[in-house]
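In the previous chapter we treated chains in isolation. Here, by contrast, the input contains two separate entities that must be folded as one system, with a combined length of 897 residues.
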Amino acid sequence: MSDSTETQPDFAPANIAHHPRRTDVDPKAAKRAERQVATMFVLAALLVLASVAAYVLIPVDAGVVVPLLGPIGALNAALGLSLGLGILLIGLGAIQWARKLMPGTEVVAMRHEMRSSGEARADAVEAFDRGLADSGFAQRPLIRRTLIGAMLVLPLPLIVLLRDLYTAPEGALSPAEQLEETIWEPGVRIVTDVTGNPIKAEDVPVGGLVAAVPANLHEVEEEDGNLNARAKAPIILVRMAPDEIVSQQAPPEGEAWDYEGILAYSKICTHVGCPIALYEQRTHHLLCPCHQSTFDLADSGNVVFGPAARQMPQLPITVDDEGYLVAVSDFQQPVGPSFWERS
Amino acid sequence: MSVVQETGGKAAGWTDDRLGNSNFLRRSLNKVFPDHWSFMLGEIALYSFIVILLTGVYLTLWFKPSMIEVVYDGSYAPLKGVKMSESMASTLDISFDVRGGLLIRQIHHMAALFFVAAIAIHMMRVFFTGAFRKPREMNWVIGVVLFLLAIAAGFSGYSLPDDLLSGTGLRITQGIIQASPVIGTWLSFLIFDGEFPGTAFIPRLYSVHILLIPGLILALVTAHLMMVWYQKHTQFPGPGRTNENVVGYPLMPVYMAKAGGFFFVVFGMLVALAGVIQINPIWAYGPYMPDQVTAGSQPDWYVGFLDGALRLMPPWEIVAFGYTLSLNLIIPAMVLAPVLLVLVGAYPWIERYALGRDTGEHHLLDRPRNAPTRTALGVAMVTFYIVLMIGGGNDIIAYNFDLSFNTMIRVLQVLLFVGPVVAFIVTKRICLSLQRRDRDLLLHGRETGRVLRLPSGEFLEIHEEVDEESKAKILAKPDIEPLALPEAVDDSGVANPASRKQRRRSRWSRFFFTDNVPLPSDEELAEARTHIDHELDDAVEAGSKAAAEISEHQ
C-alpha cells in the first residue's frame, strides 16, 4: 500500500539484508504452505466438532487407561485433547500463515521522544495555573482547609463499617480470652478422634500414640455450627516407661500431669497451628509436617528443632471412677500459634 | 469490489462518521512490533489471564462458596456420606457430575500456574535486558504489583474448595495474621468472624477472588498494555536497529496473525494439558478438618518461597511486658516479602542513582553481559528466591533423596546468605568474560575452522571478520564511566559541603560500573581489520622468509 507510506513518512521497509524464503521465490512452495494452513484449520474444525461428540457420547464416569499417564477420566481426556488440539491448530495455522505467506520483510518506524514539547508543557502549566487561580483554591484558605478536613474524615466510616466483620455472640469473651481456652474441662473424658470411644489406660500401649478429642466435641460442634473447637482441642496421647520421661510441664509441687506414663499433649503446633501426628517412638520426637518444628515429648514438649518458639502445651490427665482417661483441667497455657496478648 | 468489502467499508464509514477512528487506525494498523522469542513471555501471561477469566466465569455457575456443612451425596463413591462444607461438595460436583466441569476446573488451575510463572519469567527478561529503564520505570512498577496480585489471585483461588490441603494453607495464613504485632488477634477475628475456621471466611475470600483481585489485575493489565503500546516496544540491538527507530513487523497483518495465533496456541496447550494431567485432586485430600493434615503437603509453586522462609527462620520470639512478638513469623511472612518487592520495584531508581545522570530514553535493550552488576544482582536475587523455594520443599527432597531434613535446613540457612554472594561474583565474572570474548571477536575476527599449512610448515587458522549482525550487536554496548570521587576540598581549600553525599553516590557508581571491558577504539578496530585482512599474506611472507633463512643455513 503505497499511500500508507506517504501518509506515514516514518514507516518504511527496513534497510536490512533480507533472505527471501522458499515461499517467496517458489510458487509451488507457497501453494504447499497454503495447503498446510488450510489443513490445520480443517483439522481444527473437525477436532472441535469431535469434542462436542465426546460430550454427548462419553459417560461422565467412564475411565480410560492411557499409556504413560495411567487411568484417567475418559470424558476429561477426550474433551481436553480434542478441544485443546483443535484450538492449538487454529493458532498454529495462523502462525504458519504469517511465517510463510505474509510479507517476510521487516519494516521500520521512527520513535518520537516521549516528553512533550516545551511549548505544550508551558501551555499545560499555564492552563493549570489559570484553573487554580480561577477556583480560588490558593486565595481562599477557608474553603481549602475545610475541604481537606472533610476529605480526611471521609475514610473513617469506611473503616468503621468494617468493624462488624466480627460480631461477637452475646456474652462472648474477648478475642484474646477466647484464644486462651479450649473446651476441655475437669472430668471431660478423652475419646478417640475417629470412633469417639472413651479410652482406658491399658488401651494406650507403651510407645504408642493415640489421637484424641474431648468427649463433648461433637455436642459443641453441633451447637456452634462450626469447627472452631476442633481447631484447638485435639490432643495426642503417648505412653512412655516412667524412666523415659525426663520432665513434664506439671508444677513442681502437686500431682504430675501424666497418668501412669501416659502424657497428653496438644495436637496443634505452636508455630502456625498445623495439627501434628508424626511421632518417632524411639526419640519421643513429634514432628510438624508443615514447617518441621520438632518437639520432645519426653522433655515437657520442648522445641528441639525448627521455627516454633514454644513448647507443646500439656493437658493434665487422670482417670475417672470407671477407669477412663479424663482431663484434670483445661490446658494451663494457650494452644496453637502465638498472639500479641499472650504473655 | 466484493460484497464483504462493500459492507465492511460501509460499517467502517459509519463508525468513523461518529468516532473519527480512522486517525487511530491509520497509525495503529501500521504499528511496528519487534520480533524476539523472549517478547512472547508477557504474551503468555496475558493469554493465560484471559483463559483464567473465561474458565473462572464458567466455574462460578456451579461453585457454592459456603462453609455450611453438608453430607456429600455426589457420584464420587469414596466420599459418599462424608460431612464437608458446601464449598468442597460443589467443587466435587463440578469435578464429577458436571460434564466437562473437571476439564474447565483443571484449565483454570493450570492457567493460573502458567500465569504466575510467565509473569515471573517475563519480569526476569525485562530486568536482565534493562527494559525497565527510562521511560518504562512506571510500567516496571505496575508489573511488580501485577506479580503480587497474581500470587494473591492464585492463593485465594486454590483456597476456595475448602479441602484438606488448602485448609492447611489457610490455617498457616491465619496463624501468621494472628501473630501480627498489636492488632493480630483482632485482625484475625475480623477476617474470620471469630476464631478459626468459622463459617464466614470462604464466602469473603470468594468475593476477593472473583471480583476484587481480577478487577485490579484487569485495570493494571490495561494500563500496562497501553503504556507498551504508547511507548512502543523495546528492541534488541542489531543491524539497522537504533535507539530512535523500531524494526519489526507491522500489526496488520503479520503481528496480528502471530500474536493472535499465539493466543490460540497458549489456550490450546492449556486445554490439552488439563485433559491429561491431573491437578489439585481435592477428592484425594478429603475435606478440611482442623485436626488433620497430610504429610508432605505442598502449596502451589509460587507460595513455596514463603513456606521456605517460614521453615528457615530460627525460632525467635520475644515475650516482654506481658506481650508476645513472634519474630519467627513476622520476619519471614510480613517483612521479607514486602522488602523484596520494594527492592525489586525500586530497582530502576537504584540503578539510576548509580548512573548519576539522565542518559535519556532507552529503547535498545542491553545484552545481560553488558550490564554485569545488574545481571549479577539479578542472579543473586534469583538464587535467594530459589534457596527459599528449596526450603519450601525440603521434606519432599529429603524424603526422595534420603537426606536428613535437619541438615538440609541448616545448609539452606547458610546458603540463603552465602548463595547470593557467590552467585553475584560468579555471574559478574562470566559477564566480563563474555565481554572480553566480544572484544576479541572484533579485534581478531571469527575462527573459521579452516587450517592452512604454509610452505614453511607452519599451521595457521584463518580468521574472518564477524558478520554484520554480530558486529552490530557487540558494538551496541554502552561503556559507562563510574562517577568520579569528588574532591573533599576545592582548589581554594574550602571543604565541599556536598562531598559526603557525592562520595556515597560515587562509591555506589563504582560498584556498578568499574568492572567493564571497554569496546575497542576506532583506531584499534581499523588496525584489527587490516590485520585480519592481511593475516594470510603476512603469515606467508613471514613463512617464506623463515624458509629462506633455513635453506641459507643449510
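The longest strand of chain A covers residues 209-214. Chain A is about 35% helix and 15% strand. Compare these points with the single-chain example from earlier in the chapter.
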